Amino acid sequence: MQIDDSVVFVTGANRGLGLAFTQELLARGARKVYAGVRRPEEVSVPGVVPIRIDVTDPISVAAAAAQCTDTTLLINNAGVARVMESTLDSALVGAAREVFETNFYGVILTTQAFAPFLLANGSGAIVNVLSDASWFSRPMLAAYSASKSAAWSYTNALRVELREKGTQVLGLHVGFLDTDMTHGFDMRKSSPDRVASATLDALEGGLEEVFADEGTQAIKRRLSSEHADYLYPPAIE
């Protein structure tokens, strides 16, 4: 998938990694970049086209897709996280439902809405923003990790189905990013700009997965070890 002259729809495009994607896409010559957001009036990046979308609302997703039928690349970036005190917290079920609506069902809704247009426009590509937490879970982020594990599983199934139709499906695995979601937390964070650049490099290179930081790469390598991270999650640094 080449970025130059592509038409891209990015969900959660108003800040963090989504914003970094829109800027990097424009810098690489994308013909059009749709910034999918809940409040289009807050989009201030010159050159992007703000589109109202709530990925948890099927009607909103369908309306956005109908406005952007020329899309050739979909980046499912919208995501939320909820920090809990314990896996036994009585509020965990409600938090998990909220997180899954965006991180899992939202990915399915947008993918199903846009995939027919990608195919009609020459197959195109889909990027799903996942996490290193797809492979392990800390108690305070149990709901988030479960949603990302589910999204990873869906991404793998989607890739198998769409590969034969010529649509590239790329899963982005990354740890903590220096965004509003992690503001106030003291840990090692990756630059959204660097992650966006690495992801688009991988996309243009024809890859199907990208591990965007050293920590994520190390976690992937250790999955088959006796001290795999899903058994012994790494300390937050």
From TrEMBL:
One function term, GO molecular function aspect: oxidoreductase activity
Signal peptide: none
Keywords: Oxidoreductase
Pfam families registered for this protein in UniProt: adh_short
Domain of life, source organism: Bacteria
Gene Ontology CC entries for this record: cytosol
SUPFAM superfamilies to which the protein is assigned, alphabetical: NAD(P)-binding Rossmann-fold domains (SSF51735)
PANTHER family: OS04G0390700 PROTEIN, RETINOL DEHYDROGENASE-RELATED
Annotated family: Belongs to the short-chain dehydrogenases/reductases (SDR) family.
Name of this chain's protein: Short-chain dehydrogenase
Organism whose genome encodes this protein: Caballeronia glathei
Taxonomy of the source species: Bacteria, Pseudomonadati, Pseudomonadota, Betaproteobacteria, Burkholderiales
